[in-house]
């Protein structure tokens, strides 16, 4: 189990830093005016590009960019830069300017996984800077990580609030909001819904990544771990739910511009965790080779970061997004659920749930509710086994 957790964290550090690289690319472009993902007519745009703020109307008046109106096929009038032109326009297959910026400029996406098609220089540079930033944040060990997390764990809440306020003012935001909060009870009958939900819990809470064990090992012996577990659960899942409002208000606006249902648009369509994943690997090495790691800690971290950077370069290629999705599903998601099942069996049945509850009582001064015993021994393993059977 421990080796599996180390492998998962190595893979996580290998491919998830790519997300930071993409954020850096957007940050650099955000200093341009106008924002390149809000307009068409750029070298990466296609004739079917729809700029931000344009409104596509099916079988009615249609507002489109000059590039879009070249292939209009909507019965009625097409509005083009305040001029009314009678004709037809093909409004199927239209793509927003932001989508084309992402696919054609940031990713420079290739037709498929079998065609990596080289490495864009901006992706390689952003990936290098991302790994350098992670290395700087963890170079001094867990103390430096703790200081950095004060920023990386709190600042996103400020940004999310700003995004939600801004998104709520956009046309079509209400449609996205209603799509997000309106339950579709039929989805509960689909196995895929439960699989996706379980994988999301494993990722957002991180119970089997080893990060919680690594960070909590620095706590005092009598720390109230039960309280921390409850707080962690509510904060993590509450944050995920809160972030959904920022995402779906913007999706509603983009669907409004393209005049498609939110569910159709959505269907087509965390930084501090990297520090923790880094520390899981380093702490594991320190436990097995304390004298070596203590002497060469900084050098080992630099070498480890360089190796991960080299391994991540194929993911930054033009076809790397397909490899990224495969790794994300089969390794980061599926493997964590497998480790979770093994961990539950090891604690509840091999070590013993009663002994584990005795250990918690020794630390906290009281035993957890008996419900946890039932969850550890029966309910959680059965649910995970059922999930794997599908």
Automatic annotation (TrEMBL):
<keyword id="KW-1015">Disulfide bond</keyword>
<keyword id="KW-0325">Glycoprotein</keyword>
<dbReference type="GO" id="GO:0005886">
    <property type="term" value="C:plasma membrane"/>
</dbReference>
<feature type="transmembrane region" description="Helical">
    <location>
        <begin position="7"/>
        <end position="28"/>
    </location>
</feature>
<feature type="transmembrane region" description="Helical">
    <location>
        <begin position="154"/>
        <end position="181"/>
    </location>
</feature>
<feature type="disulfide bond">
    <location>
        <begin position="40"/>
        <end position="49"/>
    </location>
</feature>
<dbReference type="InterPro" id="IPR000175">
    <property type="entry name" value="Na/ntran_symport"/>
</dbReference>
<dbReference type="InterPro" id="IPR037272">
    <property type="entry name" value="SNS_sf"/>
</dbReference>
<feature type="transmembrane region" description="Helical">
    <location>
        <begin position="298"/>
        <end position="317"/>
    </location>
</feature>
<comment type="similarity">
    <text>Belongs to the sodium:neurotransmitter symporter (SNF) (TC 2.A.22) family.</text>
</comment>
<feature type="transmembrane region" description="Helical">
    <location>
        <begin position="370"/>
        <end position="388"/>
    </location>
</feature>
<keyword id="KW-0813">Transport</keyword>
<keyword id="KW-1133">Transmembrane helix</keyword>
<protein>
    <submittedName>
        <fullName>Uncharacterized protein</fullName>
    </submittedName>
</protein>
<feature type="transmembrane region" description="Helical">
    <location>
        <begin position="121"/>
        <end position="142"/>
    </location>
</feature>
<feature type="binding site">
    <location>
        <position position="272"/>
    </location>
    <ligand>
        <name>Na(+)</name>
    </ligand>
</feature>
<keyword id="KW-0812">Transmembrane</keyword>
<feature type="transmembrane region" description="Helical">
    <location>
        <begin position="329"/>
        <end position="350"/>
    </location>
</feature>
<dbReference type="GO" id="GO:0046872">
    <property type="term" value="F:metal ion binding"/>
</dbReference>
<dbReference type="GO" id="GO:0005283">
    <property type="term" value="F:amino acid:sodium symporter activity"/>
</dbReference>
<dbReference type="Pfam" id="PF00209">
    <property type="entry name" value="SNF"/>
</dbReference>
<keyword id="KW-0915">Sodium</keyword>
<keyword id="KW-0479">Metal-binding</keyword>
<feature type="binding site">
    <location>
        <position position="204"/>
    </location>
    <ligand>
        <name>Na(+)</name>
    </ligand>
</feature>
<dbReference type="GO" id="GO:0089718">
    <property type="term" value="P:amino acid import across plasma membrane"/>
</dbReference>
<keyword id="KW-0472">Membrane</keyword>
<feature type="transmembrane region" description="Helical">
    <location>
        <begin position="230"/>
        <end position="256"/>
    </location>
</feature>
């Amino acid at each position: 189990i421990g080796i599996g957790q180390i492998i998962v964290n190595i893979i996580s550090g290998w491919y998830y830093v790519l997300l930071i690289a993409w954020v850096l690319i957007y940050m650099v472009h955000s200093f341009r005016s106008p924002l390149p993902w809000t307009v068409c007519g750029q070298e990466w745009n296609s004739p079917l590009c729809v700029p931000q703020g344009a409104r596509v109307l099916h079988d009615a008046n249609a507002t489109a960019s000059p590039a879009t109106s070249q292939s209009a096929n909507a019965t009625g009038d097409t509005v083009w830069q305040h001029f009314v032109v009678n004709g037809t326009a093909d409004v199927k297959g239209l793509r927003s300017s932001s989508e084309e910026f992402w696919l054609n400029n940031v990713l420079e996406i290739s037709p498929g996984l079998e065609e990596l098609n080289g490495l864009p220089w901006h992706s390689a540079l952003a990936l290098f800077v991302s790994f350098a930033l992670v290395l700087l944040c963890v170079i001094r060990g867990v103390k430096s990580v703790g200081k950095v997390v004060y920023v990386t764990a709190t600042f996103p809440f400020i940004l999310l609030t700003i995004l939600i306020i801004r998104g709520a003012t956009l046309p079509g935001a209400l449609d996205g909001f209603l799509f997000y909060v309106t339950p579709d009870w039929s989805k509960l009958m689909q196995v895929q819904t439960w699989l996706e939900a379980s994988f999301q819990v494993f990722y957002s809470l991180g119970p089997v990544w080893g990060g919680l064990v690594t960070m909590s090992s620095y706590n005092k012996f009598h720390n109230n771990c039960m309280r921390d577990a409850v707080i962690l659960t509510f904060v993590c899942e509450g944050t995920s739910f809160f972030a959904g409002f920022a995402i779906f208000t913007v999706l509603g606006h983009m669907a409004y511009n393209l005049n498609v249902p939110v569910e159709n648009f959505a269907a087509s369509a965390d930084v501090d965790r990297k520090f923790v994943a880094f520390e899981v690997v380093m702490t594991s090495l320190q436990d097995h080779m304390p004298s070596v790691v203590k002497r060469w800690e900084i050098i080992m971290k630099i070498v480890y970061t360089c190796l991960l950077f080299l391994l991540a370069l194929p993911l930054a290629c033009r076809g790397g997004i397909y490899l990224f999705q495969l790794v994300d599903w089969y390794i980061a998601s599926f493997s964590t659920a497998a480790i979770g099942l093994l961990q539950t069996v090891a604690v509840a049945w091999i070590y013993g749930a009663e002994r584990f509850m005795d250990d918690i009582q020794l630390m906290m001064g009281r035993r957890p509710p008996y419900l946890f015993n039932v969850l550890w021994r029966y309910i959680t393993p059965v649910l995970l086994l059922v999930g794997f059977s599908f």
